[in-house]
Amino acid sequence: MDILKTKSQMREWSKNKKTESKTICFVPTMGYLHQGHVSLLEKGKPLCDELVISIFVNPTQFGPNEDLDDYPSNIEKDLDLAQKAGVTAVFLPDKKNIYPENFQTEVKLQYLPGFLCGKSRPIHFAGVATIVTKLFNIVMPDIAVFGQKDYQQLQIIRQLVKDLDFNIKILEGNIIREKNGLAMSSRNAYLSKIQRKSALCLSKSLDLARKLIAGGEKNPVTIKKKIETFIEAFPETIIEYVSLCNPENLEDIDRIEDKILVALAVKIGRTRLIDNALINPAQ
Ligand code: AMP
Fold this sequence. Notes:
Blueprint: E1 2-4, H1 7-19, E2 24-29, H2 35-44, E3 50-55, H3 75-84, E4 89-91, H4 95-98, H5 117-120, H6 124-139, E5 143-147, H7 151-163, E6 169-173, H8 193-214, H9 220-232, E7 237-245, E8 260-268, E9 271-279
Helix pairs in contact: 6-7, 8-9
Bound molecules: adenosine monophosphate.
């Protein structure tokens, strides 16, 4: 497994692989890897000759009062997991290499960032779109894998690839959960024992939505209210949003007829967690 610490090293590596006609699959991450990240690597592994992971905590996607300085890190463990998952190259740049002095370009989508997480994190998706554009240009992959866990991000990347004509196939990986239903996240490391119990309110809310929809409930407002009441009963929870929306354009829906996205963001103490599910009333 090669470890590339600068963008010129990474680009050179990819160029060499391409001259050897090797295909490249890419999984961008912010590190502190867990089974969710590993599942994306496992999905990509059989599809290409080379498997690249990037580990970079991207400062431009964090707001001023967010957890950039506290974001968990364990590079040694990450490298071990990456190696076991069959990664052939790790891109591990530092911030100065990615954002040199006088950096001034931003990639910003007009529409999709206006919903869900974008409402409370106004600069987040411009940061994501900018870093992913840069990483795509540096790594030059044929395929890139993103998790459905960050559903809005996935939709934004798909749109970005279409709008900017990247010749990269975007694949999505299912949400990997702990046995109790909690979606795996690097940020789960912030949770106390009690908060971990409260954090179950997210996946349980999705179960509640599934149950209500299976029972014939068509009114999204009714479901939203029931979920909100449900979450409020858990200690230390502050709801940021509960949304029942169109999975393509993320707009709120008036009535549940087709497949919908139920998406949530809840603060457990100071830790902001997200989760989502696609629910089809016909099934
Ligand atoms: P992050 O390191 O949090 O930026 O995530 C890197 C990639 O892993 C993103 O595409 C995420 O959607 C994905 N990811 C994070 N958590 C999970 C999970 N529990 N299951 C599957 N993919 C995940």
